[in-house]
Amino acid sequence: MLKEKIKNLPKSPGIYKMKNTHGDIIYVGKAKNLKQRVNSYFIQNRQHSRKVLEMIRWIDDFDYETVDTEFDALLLECHLIHQIRPRYNRMMNYYEEDYGYFQFIDKAPYLKVLSEWSEYGLVIGPFFKQSKIQELKQIINSTYRLDGPLKYVAGIVKNYDDMTPEAEFELRVQEIKQTLLGQSTALLTRIDQRVQAASERQDYEASAQWWNYYLTVQRFLRRNKQLIQIMQNQTFVGILQEDGVYYCYLYAKGELLNRVVYHRKPTFQQAKKRLEKDISKKTWQRLASKERLEKADVDLFPIFFNYLNQHGQVLGFEA
């Protein structure tokens, strides 16, 4: 039965849903070529992992859905996994565990990393992933001395000749907030100063360590630049060209709002106008009142931006 069903599969992009004997969906996958991808599960392949081999033993049937592009398949796969939570989509099933938040509070330790949102203090995020967030927090603490015995040894942002230690400390905190909100690159400047200072005193080990810190922060800010813009109400238009057809997408506040197709290349302004035309006033009001992104919203973010930055184009617009 399965072999016959596979024979009749189209070679187009789409998603497939593997089912067990009870009809439960145990896995959702995406494919550029459905026939080739689904068939690959049922031929001998030494590259199959233990997890895949275990799953194959449970497959009794499958359903599929075709889409226009591989990108559409990626988007639909993400949506279905969040909705269904299939047993063998373990990585995307537990995506919530990989996200975290920065929290600023008005007492020691001043900067914390949280697994869940809090209404207390200024909370920024969610960001991927927890280990990277903890690493960035340690770099920030090393740079700005937010806590510990060296907290007030010297001013980081201003000399104590110009202001009280407490006022200078508040400037440090503000500088960190601005960096994490995408409004400043001051943290990179501070770290670069440490690199230069260590080099001048010929402490090359410390210089190398601070340079590694610089690269870590730079990567984090670069990877999350568009995510921070989304948090600050920017709307994005993506355009993907395949076989002379232009697929256009509207993305805002972590949600894919609309998709239209052109058979001639549109400008971003043309695509934006047409995409927004179909969005109801109620939807815009809901988005305007959306104060923060959920983890599910952010999980869609790398799919949207990574694919379109590599295969198409993305442009942001102020809301």
From TrEMBL:
Signal peptide: none annotated. It comes from the Bacteria. InterPro entries: GIY-YIG_endonuc (IPR000305), GIY-YIG_endonuc_sf (IPR035901), GIY-YIG_UvrC_Cho (IPR047296), UvrABC_protein_C (IPR050066). One of its GO terms (cellular component) is excinuclease repair complex. This is Nucleotide excision repair endonuclease. GO terms for biological process: nucleotide-excision repair. Keywords: Cytoplasm, DNA damage, DNA excision, DNA repair, Endonuclease, Excision nuclease, Hydrolase, Nuclease. One of its GO terms (molecular function) is endonuclease activity. Residues 11-90 form the GIY-YIG domain. It holds the Pfam family GIY-YIG. SUPFAM superfamilies: GIY-YIG endonuclease. It comes from Enterococcus avium.
